[in-house]
Every structure is written in structure tokens, then in C-alpha cells.
Design goal:
The complex is a heterotrimer of chains A (about 625), B (about 280) and C (about 300).
Chain A: H1 2-20, H2 24-47, H3 61-85, H4 89-109, H5 123-154, H6 162-181, H7 185-203, H8 209-240, H9 245-250, H10 253-270, H11 278-282, H12 288-297, H13 299-314, H14 318-339, H15 344-365, H16 368-399, H17 410-413, H18 415-429, H19 434-449, H20 454-476, H21 491-509, H22 511-527, H23 535-550, E1 563-564, E2 579-581, E3 587-589, H24 603-626
Antiparallel strand pairs in A: 2-3
Helix pairs in contact in A: 1-2, 1-6, 2-5, 3-4, 3-7, 4-8, 5-6, 5-12, 5-16, 5-21, 5-22, 6-7, 7-8, 8-10, 10-13, 10-24, 12-16, 13-15, 13-16, 14-15, 14-20, 14-24, 15-16, 15-20, 16-18, 16-19, 16-21, 16-22, 18-20, 18-21
Chain B: H1 3-32, H2 42-51, E1 56-57, H3 62-82, H4 86-106, H5 110-141, H6 146-150, H7 156-159, H8 161-174, H9 202-225, H10 231-251, H11 257-282
Chain C: H1 3-6, E1 9-14, H2 20-27, E2 41-42, E3 51-55, E4 58-59, H3 60-71, E5 78-82, H4 84-88, E6 98-100, E7 110-112, H5 119-142, E8 150-154, H6 160-178, H7 184-187, H8 190-199, E9 201-207, E10 210-220, E11 223-231, H9 240-251, E12 257-263, H10 267-275, E13 279-285, E14 291-298
The chains are: A mainly alpha (about 625), B mainly alpha (about 280), C alpha/beta (about 300).
Amino acid sequence: MTLVLILILVPFAAGLGLLCLRPDYLRRILVGCTTLAVCGCTLALARLPTPVNLEAVPLNHHWINVGMMLIEIGMGLYVIYVGLRAKHPLIVALMLAQAGLMGWFELTQGSHLEAAQNLFVDKFSVIMALINGVVGGGICLYALGYMREYHEVAHRDVADRRPLFFALLFVFMSAMFGLVFANNLKWLFFFWEITTLCSFLLIGYTQTEEARRNALRALVMNLAGGLAFALAIVWFYKQAHSIELQVLIASKQSLVLLPAALLCFAGITKSAQLPFSSWLLGAMVAPTPVSALLHSSTMVKAGVYLVLRMAPVISGTKVGLLVAMVGGVTFVVGSLAAITTSEAKRVLAWSTIANLGLIVLCGGIGTYEAVWAGVLLIIFHAVAKCLLFLCVGVVEHKLHSRNIEDMSGLILRMPRVAVMMLIGMAGMFLAPFGMLISKWAVLKAVVDANPLLSVFIVFGSSATLFFWVKWMGKLVEVVGSCERVKKELVLGESVALYGLSAATFLTCLLFPLISSRFVEPYVVDVYGQSASLSQGNIIIMTIMMAMVMLFPFSFISYGHGVKVVDAYLGGANVNSSVRFLGSASAVENVTMHNYYLRSLFDETWLSRWGVIGSAVLLAVMLVMACL
Amino acid sequence: MSIWIRVILYLVAAPVVGCLLAGWDRRISARMQSRRGPPILQPLYDVQKLWQKQNIVVRRSQNFYILFFLLLVIFTGALFFAGSDLLLVIFALTLAAIFFVLGAYKASSPYSFIGAERELIQMMAYEPMILLTAIGMYIVTKSFQVQKIASHPTLLVLVLPGIFLGFLFTLEIKFRKSPFDLSCSHHAHQELVRGITTEFSGRTLAMIEIAHWYENVFLLGWVYLFFASSPLLGVAVSLLVFVFVILVDNVFARLKWQTALRSAWVVAAVLGFGNILILSLLH
Amino acid sequence: MSVFTKSPWIIHYDASSCNGCDIEVLACLTPIFDVERLGVVNIGNPKHADIFLVTGAVNEQSQSVIRNIYNQMPEPKVVVAVGICAATGGIFRECYNISGGVDSVIPVDVHVPGCAARPEAIIDGVVQALGVLEKKHQDMAATTGNIDQTLYLRAEKDDAPGILALQKNAGQCEAKIYGDESLPALQQTLEELQSDFDRMVFIKAVVNSKLIGFARGYVREDNTCVNGVIVHPYFRRHGIGRRLLEEIEKAFPSAKRFEIFTGQKNERGLHLLGKLGYREFKTEPFTPAITWVHLQKERQ
């Protein structure tokens, strides 16, 4: 119990402290200590048996609720102020509607809004807490070195508001802990809104026009989700006279379908599914730690976490089917769109959106197999995507470019980062790494529940293959001379990156353990039975992993028994593999650019029709939920 | 037959069968072109000769990828014939193909680069259909295990005709035959120079050829699965399918990659998904 | 019969041919001649090929291309020059843009005559090239571990034809420089060369069982005359000429003085000899165009 409180309060306190610290070395100490504390606590929490009875320690609910209300009012006023200043009527309208609804709700029902258990811990919460603590902690360490270079070298024109930056990172981390441990829906909502605000402030960190615009867009969409959340709370209380998450999950389907649908709507906005994907794409203007923490590993996971929690309620209903279709459409559109762009962070953003779509698909299907697959997807995606974002951040600083075409020959220019990027990419789609196992599980769950949904997965996964391998190829190809970059990584960055690479491997190798200790017990708790990977298949995956890990050993015989000649350039080589004699005896250079298939898949066209299609699906879903 | 016997049989016999198939491929193609064609064992002579040639490279590490490509293709086929999970077999094959593509990228030459990109497009084109094939087989036999599928009492092709036709379409891509031999110009063609295999020579090129033998035997084995309940019919159809693929190769010119991708996805959506839709509605 | 003769893969390059020989090469692939039944495949990629089929004479542009392609072929490899243009420059020999046949650029193993060469002749040439390929493979296998290494060995009388070919090749290049074909190197016949073996020592430089250079020396009174160091144009500037000279000096351990002569326009040769310690001591006019420069060196 104390662990949970520590996890929520310590990062928050650290955040407030960081707000006041100016000198970098003090900041480093505080960040380092807090990260260590948080990691230690989450690991300790993981070893406890669950579910844990959390009401042993008395909490003074009244004062906590008053405090929350005051903070909420403060946030609401700030948001309205932001909306007014930016002349964005929708923000003001949404915030007023949300505040009005919750205010009316409190006033009319205030005294009855008690939850038997405000906080709870089960295996799923523990998994999310581990991700938040370990991966999030790693990102905070990375951010130390990254932000110093950001302000001192790469972006000297951006105002140095690092105290605010790091404060927000830790406040956000504490809000995430609160979110995953909350059973009281009002408390969940409270933490949810804090994450929205943190996201808004962090996207707008650089204070450029583009950043401001994108931050406002994120705010609008997340507020829409927040309004749906508020509606869900109110409606659920009307139906069942309770504000507890566990009660919602255990209730009869017909009773709570609408609140569940509204909560799924909120989750869909938070995890940037179509039609709300544009905010995540726009959020890539923020510095890399923000993209990694909020917009790939943790905050967006809160959205799919909520959808997966709702899975038992919507399973087998039309609402569930429509939620799954929204996820499926997002998966296909996101994967196809990622092929067409050459900006690294945009590719990662689309890939994140697509993979979250896959998790939403699992949530919509809602069978025990699907939820098992969905939780696995969360784990593996968080680790691998975070690794990729952090590597891209380092590369951006050293090469001054986010374009994949500029990363040619990275394996020689920045070998360590390139190898870690390759590990991250392999972790995203390649057998026998984690995401592949998860995708396999999803496929199995889908064919058992509703084979027609498999069409989404089948087309989406072939598209993911294309853009990942094309990027991997760009990293290993060597065209011309490639000079080694002087200092690849600073301390914070290397700790985070090595740690995450090891985590990618370990989560895959220890996958049977993770599944049996954390995921399967949770699924059994909720459904009474769980899926798992059979013994035979585990052995086969281990053999495959061993074969893949043998690959680096082949470099022992590097250069033996082979003769090096130039590449074939039609015989027109001019003393090298990269220069050839062109027409009029001019010496030309070889250039090789990846295919982007823009004649077949246009990003704008895909986005537009994806938005239209998924908006229709969402509208139908809400209608179905009301019936 | 126990699993281990099947696996060892595959490991030993597949290259022999694959070699003969490749030899018959060239012979039949030659006869279709009013020529006599090489001896049946010509692929064996080619591989033997390549094995004894000097190994020249553009980048020193490019051959390592091909070695792992070969090992993983053998692993894939062994998995399939051992009767394990069909989805896992598909994923292992994808892993093998990715090593091949990365090796071509590593070679860092324009022709191997184009070959690699086109190979990726080919993979993107056929993957939906082969996944739908596995799913179709699951819907009918309630199992992804090749063992169970092979011992299913009904003739699968009768229940999965659309998927069978779609699978045949993708076989044209997987066997690297016109109209879809986009990435590496088999035998006599010279476009893209040799595409994905341009910068590999000697032993490495021999390994690629051997890997293709293993892969072809695996693919024909999958065709056999559609007819597994009557083995003789299955073997006969597999060989017929092989001849059919060669016939299509000799009749068609190579099409553009855009056409390949579009048509393969349309076929997967219409034939593959249509078949599954009908099956779901019937249940 | 080894597998090399059963699976010959060809790369066909048109140096500056009128395309007559090229069409005949392609005719070999048609059903009438069908070389694929011999296992021949027109592979078009040097890294996969065994036989380099060249048609047409060599001009400035194709010299570097031929070198590039030849360089990118793995050993063992053979070169077949198809048609008289590829052999000597053919009817275009005197043209300002033609520098000669293919063997002025790379060592050629088989010449197929004809204008245009007939498919039957081309196939016959390829089959003979297979024999050469087989022999090269066996020689290379015998000296394993020496791939791409230059070996310096005593030459025997059997090497005479190859040495004569090299000699004439080099002589033709020189004759072009002086505009005079009366060089003794060009005039020597095979019988004269073979009789030279009785009184001279020949050292040959061999790479991948291919003769690429030689040097010869003999004793006259108490001097030792080195009578010629020749390296194939493709392999020049790799220090082979220097090594050959050193080897020939080692072959006469008791000699006290070495003598050599060369044409006055052979600047590179004179420079090399100067670096090795040879000093000019006499000039001797041979023809109006050519003057021999005699150099000598005392042994240390």
C-alpha cells in the first residue's frame, strides 16, 4: 500500500522540486535518485502477490477529494484561459461542458460518491506500473543528457525551460501511476486530465507557432475524450450507483454498455486512434523524450489500458465489434501511411498509432485470448518503440536531420546507436521478438472470435514489414566513405539505450515467464481462463532466437577468404563503388533512395478516408451503445 | 512417421528434389521455346561450379546475411515438415527473407538495392494471401498445426477453392516467375542485371540457389496440404502446379511492380477474404 | 570432366563492335544452336560469370569498362575475343580511335576469328575456352592458397607460345608509339624463341595460372645481358616488372655486371631501370625512329 502511495507521491514531489532547481548537476542528482527510487518500488511491487488489499491504511478521503477538486478547478480555469487566449472556442466549450457536467454531478450527488476501494493493484496495474517506472525512468535519465545537448548545441534558439520540462515529466509519471492504480473513476478521471495537461504543456515546449498549434490540437481532442469520460461517470452512476472501475467491469453488459462505450471513446482519443490521429502526428515537434514518454510508451498506453479494461464489458457486443473495427482500420491506415514518409519520427508516430490500433482491436474483441494478446502487445511495444524514439533522438542531434535517407551508412558512422536501432526495429516486427509473438497471439485470438476481422491484421502486417526493413536496409548500406561520429552517446543516453536494448532481448527471452507470472493470472482473474503459448512453440521460438543471436558471431570471420571489389555499375566505375562515368564523360555519384510508394498510397488520401471511415464507425458505435 | 524422421528426410531429400525440380524447370521452359534445354542435373553442376569459384564481395559482411538466410529457410522447411504451427512457419520464412534482403542492402550497389526494394514489395504482395491461407485452413480444421491439417479427413481444396486459387497466384511470385519475377531475373533474363543477387558470387550464390531449392520444396509441400487427404492426388497436383507455374512463366512477360502489388492484394481480398467470408456465413 | 566445363556462364560485352559478332553471339542462344544445352547461360553480371566474351575492337571508352568488368570477375576466368576486331582491331585497326584488340587491355585466352564470326565458331571457341578454364582451375587447385598472388617461376619450352603472344602484344603497343614495326620483338618467330630457350634463362610471372609477364637473360663474355622484361598492360604498375628484374638477377649469381637496352621513348621503363641502379652508357640508332638506349649495372 505504501508502495503505491510512494509511487504516486514521490515523482510528484520530485517534479515540484525540479521546478525550482536551476543548476544542471542538482537536477541530475534529483532525477537520478527519483528514477532509482521509482524503479526500485515498481520492482518491489511486482514481487508482491496481488490483488492487494489497499484499504488497510486509512486515507482521509474527504481532504483528498477536496484537494483534487481544487486542482481540477485550477486546471479547468487554466484550460479556459488557454482557449480564450488562443481564440479556440472548441476548447472553451469542451472544458465548460466537462466542468459543468462534473460540477453538477458533484453538487447533486456529492455526499454519495464514496468508493469502497479508491485504489487497487492487480497484475495488469503492476505491468503498467513497471512500464511506467522502468521505461519512463530510463527516458528521464536519457532526457538529462539529451536536453543539455538540445539547448546548448542543437536548438539554441529555444528558451531553456528545463526546470518546467523535467517537472512536467515527473508530474506526468506520478499521474500515470495514479491512473493505473485508481479504482475510483473520479480519481482516474483526475489523473487522466493531468496527463492531458502535461501533454499540452510539453508539446508546446518549444513555443514555436507550429508547436502551439499542435499542442492546442492535442488539447482539443483529449478534451473531447475527457468529456466522454465525464459522461461515462455520470451515466454509470445513474445506472449502478457506483463510481468504481471494478464494479463497472463486473456489471451486466446491457446495463453498462453506454458508459463502457464512452470510456472506450475516451481511450480512443487518448491513444490517437483514427479519427483522432492528427494530434499524435503533430506532437512529434516536441523534443524526443516527450515523444518517447508521452506519445509512444506511456500516455497513449493509458488509452488502450482503459479499452482493455473495458474488454469484458464490450466483448461479444456490436459496440465491441465496432471498437475492434476502429482499431483495425487504424492499424491498416497507419501501417500504409508509414510507408510513404521519410521523416523518422513521423514513421515512428504512424507505427505507434497502428500498433495501438492493434491493441484496441484486441480490446474490442474482448475474449480472453484477445486480452492476453493485447497486454503482451502493450509490454513489447512500449519497450521497443521507446528504444527507437530515443535512438532517433540521438541520431537527430548528431546528424542534424530526421530524414531516413540521411541515415545511410549509420552502421559505420554511429555503430552502437545503429545496432540498437536495428534491435529496436527487429523488436517491432521480426520473429522471434516480442511484437511478433504478440501479433501471432492477436491473429489466433481474431480467428477464434471473428475471422472476418483478420483482414485488417493481414494487410496491415505486410505493410509494416515494408517500412521497417527498408529502414533497416538504409542503416546497413554503405555508400561512399562513412566517417565515425566522434562522441555517440553521453552517459544518461547510453544508460537508457543499453538498458532498453537489454530489455528488448530480455522481455523476449523471458516472455514465457512474463506471461505466466503477470499476464495469465490477470486474464484468469477476469475471464476464468487464459491463453498461453504452448511448450512446443516456446521451444521453437527459443531456437529461432538463438539462431538470430548467432548472427553477430559470424563477424569473427570478417574479411577472411573474400576478395573485395567494386560494386557493379555497368562497367562504368571510376575507381570506386560509388562514382561512375556518366554521359559526356561527367563523373556522377551513386545515390540510392528508398521507395515510398507514393503513387500507390498517398498519406493525405489515406488519412482523410481513414478519418471519415473511423468517424462513421465511432458514431455507429455510440448509437448502438444507446440502444 | 515420427517428427525426427520427417525432418531428417526433409533436410537430406529436399535439396535433391529441389535440384531436380529446378532442372526440370529449365528443361520444360526450353522445350516450350523449341529448344532442347540443359541436362536435368544442370542446377547441380551450377552449384558445384559456384562452390569452387572465388568469393568476391563489395562489403566484407554481406555474405553473413546469406548464410543465415539459408539456415533459416532450412529451419522453416524443417518446421513445416515436422508438422508445427503454420503461422510460425510463415513468420520464420519472413525472417529468412529479411536476412536475404538485408544482405542485398549491405552490398550497397544500385542493382542489388533495386532488387532488395522490389523483393520487399514482393513480400508485401504475397503476405496477405499466405496469411489468409493459413487462416482459411484454421477455420476448416480448427488448428494451425500442419500435422493436424494434413490428417484432416476432407479434401481442403473443396472447402477452400478461392484460397487455393489465390495461393496459386502468390506461388507465381514466390517461385520468382514471370509475370512477377521482379527482384532477381531468373536464368536468362538480364534486366536489373541480376537484381538482388547481383553482388553475390561463388559459394554465397550457391547458397542462395540451394536455399531456393529448399523453399520450393516447402511451397509444393504446402500445395500438397490442400489435397492431403488423398496423398497420391496431392503429389500429382503439386507437380502439376509446378508445371503450371512454368507455363505461366513462359507465356507472360514481366509486369510492373505496381501491377504485382495491386493484383496480389486484390486477389487476396477477393479470393482469399471472399472464401473466408463465405465460410463464416455458412457456419 | 569437371563441373567447370559443364556450367560455363558468360558475360558478353560489345567493345565497339559493328554488332555483327554480337548478333551471332545471340544467335547461339536461339533454338537452332541452343548453347543452353551445354549449360551456357548469358548471365550479364561479371560477378557470376566464368567466360568474358568480348566483341569489337577496343577504343578509349571501352578500355576502362573492359578493365572494370574483368576485375569484377571471380577466378578462374577466361577471356574469349570474338571476331577479328576483338583479336587485332580488324579492319578498323588503323582508325584514330581504336587502340587495338582486346589483348591490349586484358589477357585473352581464346581468339575466335571471323567477320562476323559464325555461331559454330563461337561455340567452338567457348568449348576451347572451357578447356583453358579447366586447366586453370586445376593449376589453381594445385597451388591452393595462392589465389590472386603473383608467382615467379622458371619458364619451360612449353611456355613459348604464351611468351611469344605476350611479346608480340607488347611489341605492337611499342610499334604504335614509334610508328615503326621493325622491332625485333615483333619479328621473332616461334622457332627462334624456342631455340632461345636453349641458351637463355626465362623467368615467368604467373597470376591465377595465367602468364602475365616474363624476363629473359643470358651470359655473354663475362657480362649478363637481360634481353627483355615484358608485363601485360593490364597488370602493369604493380611492381611485377621490378620483381622480374630482381629474379633474373638472382638467376645469375656469379655475374658481375648486367646490361639491358630499350627504346628511347620508353620513359617509364627508363625510370624504373634508373631506380634499380642501371645507368646509361651507350646509345645505338636502330632505325630513323628508334634508338636503343643501353644501360648497365654493377652488382653490389
